[in-house]
Structure formats: structure tokens, C-alpha cells
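Example S7 (C-alpha cells).
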């Protein structure tokens, strides 16, 4: 085991890491177990990030890690264009019963969420013979070229690299910020406004006959942890059915039990034509998936999809163990129970600081707190801009949480802190995290 001096000598090579990669902490993370991680200097941190929604069953879940280790002793790499491997097929066997709709019966596994989005865009264009896509304002789908083209959460992801993939059009997500409305606006009004803009988009910018797909996150992730109302998703489905457009559900962050159902879109009852999964699928092992209908994927030419590491055997074995653990450990039940506890704490904090906290939102253990700001995007036109509060509250609160021993992240162009704790977190650790957050908010508010 490395000593602190060994780690310090290694840290000099941090200067050789591409400057485009950012970090929220200094030092080297050495180990993790359950809801905690440890650094080389001895710091033990409660992890409310899960590697941005990846280690959903906690760090080094014993059943998942054992499944991966055992697979390493059988075969590590079976290239998908050469042969099947058992974990790939067994994973399909385990996923089929939990699909949000039985029509989703065709699977392609890849390595990352961005790659899966790339494959999804290719699939949609291929099977429809159409070129255009409609994405959501505030959406995040990845940082590779096609995925970056449909990402609309922050300009930093595509700044300076235009022209992006052509044929992409953006519509507003039913989020009060994006529609220039107050937080108290009824959901029905938000939905009606967004769907109206979609109709205008199809009439003015991309004809339905030119539009391959609409891609949507059932819970907006990087855009601020905003759940899509069921009525909105149903409205998208109706438009897609009317015009022969495919509906793509990006469940990379909100899927795999994160919101209290296996997939976030389940709550709406809406059937996607294509679903993208990744992150929590294999609890830290690189794996993503594109799931669709055989009637669509049977139109693909063999060899048009693939990839050197696509559907790696070790990652698939880990994912199989994840599905088994979620069933055996009643993970969905725990998510709902811990979600109710965390929401109660956050709503209590909002009641205590109504001038500083604008919103508490999300589903399951994908929750967010939005702070007021005097200087957000379009503050001069924003109904909730608040000159009475300090700037960068979210970043300051997150930094204070880290100083107090809890990893937590901000998100979106607004002042939002997001909560992504392990789905199997204990009531005691959840309470500890909520108390750390409360203390951080109290201190930052006092500082102004």
C-alpha cells in the first residue's frame, strides 16, 4: 500500500493530465467502501456523488466486485464481432423483465453514455431515413461529437469546436427558468408552452418528414435535476406517433433505480422507441446500452454497429450482479424511503431560508436544491433574480460540504446543488449528509 510520501511523488504527474479535465478535490482517492471514500492523506469522505451517478450500489459492492473478479479468471475480452460471451447474453436475460415496455427487446452494449448516444443517433437516422433531431434546452447527452451536438446544458462542452453535427434543433424543456416564468407557474402551463414551441419548431424549422427523433431525459440531469412532467412525455409521444418520429429516452443518469423505479420514464407510462442506459448499470465498470425494438434494429446492416470493447465481458458480469443485488436487497424500497427523508430535510431548510432557496426538486435519490442568485443567466429578465443574496451560493455550499467531509456536486448554469448518494445508503448516513448540508447552508448564508 502506497505511503503518503509515495502519493506526493505521484501527484507531480497531475501536471501532465490534460488541463481540460477538472476536479473538485485535491489529492488521490485511494479506496472506497459503501457510502465512503478515503484519500491518500487519510481523509474519509461521505460520497454524495457516486462518481456522478455511477457507483449506485456504493463503492466496491462485494457481490459486484466478486462477479467481476471471477469473470477476470475466465475470459476478459470477447470482441462482439467475433463471438457472444455468456455475461452479455445473461445481462439481456436479466434486463428484459425490467424494461419499461415489453417492446424494448433489442440490446447493444457499449462502453460509455456518450458512445451509446452516438449509436442511438446513428440508429435513428438509419431506420427512419431522416436526418434531423430535436433536443431539449438544458439537455446533457455527452461530450463526443454527435452527443455534444444535442447537448444544451452549458456552452463549455462545445465552445470553440463548431461546426457541430448539423440537423439539430432545440425546444424548451418545461422548466420555469427556460420559459421565463416564476417557479409557482402551474405544471400544465409549462407543459402547454413547451409543446406549443415544439409544434412551431416542426412548422418553422424542421419538417416532420425530415425529423428522425426527439431525444429527452425523463429527468433533466446536467440541466438542473428537473423531472419531466408525465403530461409532457405523453405529449412528445403523441407528436412522435403522429409524424413517425422516434422518441429517445436518455436514462444514462436517471435510470437504473435512481428515481425510485428502474427507469424514470416508467412513472409516465410512456413507451420510448429507443432507451439509452449507462452510469449505474455496472456500478463503476464501463458499460452502456442502446435498447430498442427488434423491428427497428432488424433494419440495420450487420457490421454497421460494433466497437473493440463494446459490451466487455467483465463489465457485463458486474452488471448482472448489479441487477441481482437490486432485487435481493430491495433497492427500490430503500430509494423511496431515503428519498422521503432527504426531501423532508431539504424542504425544512427551504422553509427556514425562503429568500435563499428557490426550489427543492427531483425524484428518488436524484434530488436538487436551487439557490437564489443576483447574477444568473438573463438575470435582468429573470423573475427570481435576487439582489439581496450573495453570489455563487451553490458552489460555496458545495465547497463547505467538502470541507466538512462530504463530496457533493453542483449542476447547470443556475445555482443548483445535486444529491446523488448511493441507492443503498443507510438512514444514518443519509441523515449525516443532510446535517452536513444544513450546516454548510447556515454558514454560507450568514456570510452573505
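Recovered sequence:
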Amino acid at each position: 500500500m502506497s505511503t503518503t510520501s509515495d502519493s506526493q511523488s505521484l501527484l507531480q504527474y497531475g501536471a501532465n493530465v490534460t488541463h481540460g479535465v477538472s476536479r473538485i478535490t485535491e489529492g488521490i482517492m485511494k479506496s472506497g467502501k459503501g457510502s465512503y471514500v478515503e484519500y491518500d492523506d487519510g481523509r474519509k469522505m461521505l460520497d454524495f456523488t457516486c462518481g456522478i451517478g455511477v457507483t449506485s450500489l456504493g463503492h466496491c459492492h462485494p457481490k459486484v466486485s466478486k462477479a467481476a473478479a471471477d469473470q477476470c479468471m475466465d475470459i476478459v475480452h470477447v470482441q462482439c464481432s467475433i463471438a457472444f460471451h455468456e455475461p452479455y447474453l445473461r445481462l439481456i436475460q436479466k434486463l428484459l423483465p425490467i424494461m419499461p415496455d415489453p417492446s424494448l427487446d433489442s440490446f447493444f452494449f457499449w462502453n460509455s453514455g456518450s458512445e451509446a448516444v452516438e449509436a442511438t443517433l446513428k440508429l435513428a437516422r438509419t431506420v427512419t431515413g431522416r436526418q434531423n433531431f430535436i433536443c431539449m434546452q438544458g439537455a446533457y447527452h455527452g461530450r463526443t461529437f454527435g452527443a455534444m451536438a444535442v447537448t444544451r446544458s452549458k456552452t463549455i462542452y462545445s465552445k470553440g469546436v463548431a461546426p457541430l453535427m448539423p440537423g439539430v434543433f432545440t425546444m424548451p424543456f418545461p422548466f420555469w427558468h427556460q420559459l421565463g416564468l416564476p417557479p409557482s407557474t402551474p405544471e400544465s402551463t409549462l407543459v402547454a408552452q413547451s409543446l406549443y414551441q415544439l409544434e412551431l419548431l416542426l412548422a418553422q424549422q424542421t419538417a416532420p418528414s425530415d425529423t428522425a427523433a426527439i431525444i429527452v431525459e425523463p429527468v433533466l440531469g446536467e440541466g438542473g435535476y428537473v423531472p419531466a412532467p408525465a403530461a409532457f412525455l405523453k405529449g412528445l409521444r403523441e407528436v412522435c406517433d403522429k409524424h413517425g418520429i422516434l422518441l429517445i429516452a436518455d436514462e444514462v443518469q436517471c435510470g437504473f433505480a435512481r428515481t425510485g423505479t428502474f427507469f424514470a420514464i416508467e412513472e409516465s407510462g410512456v413507451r420510448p422507441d429507443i432507451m439509452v442506459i449507462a452510469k449505474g448499470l455496472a456500478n463503476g465498470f464501463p458499460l452502456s446500452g442502446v435498447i430498442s425494438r427488434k423491428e427497428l434494429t432488424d433494419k440495420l446492416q450487420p457490421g454497421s454497429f460494433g466497437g473493440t470493447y463494446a459490451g466487455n465481458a467483465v463489465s457485463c458480469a458486474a452488471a448482472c450482479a448489479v441487477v441481482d443485488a437490486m432485487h435481493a436487497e430491495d433497492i427500490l424500497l430503500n430509494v423511496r424511503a431515503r428519498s422521503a427523508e432527504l426531501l423532508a430535510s431539504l424542504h425544512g431548510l427551504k422553509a427556514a431560508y425562503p429568500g435563499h432557496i428557490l426550489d427543492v426538486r427531483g425524484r428518488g435519490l436524484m434530488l436538487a436544491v436551487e439557490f437564489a442568485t443576483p447574477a444568473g443567466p438573463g438575470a435582468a429578465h429573470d423573475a427570481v433574480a435576487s439582489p439581496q443574496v450573495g453570489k455563487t451560493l451553490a458552489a460555496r455550499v458545495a465547497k463547505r460540504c467538502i470541507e466538512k467531509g462530504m463530496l457533493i456536486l453542483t449542476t447547470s448554469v443556475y445555482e443548483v446543488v445535486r444529491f446523488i448518494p448511493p441507492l443503498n445508503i443507510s438512514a444514518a448516513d443519509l441523515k449525516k449528509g443532510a446535517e452536513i448540508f444544513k450546516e454548510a447552508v447556515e454558514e454560507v448564508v450568514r456570510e452573505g
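Notes on this example. The longest helix spans residues 331-352.
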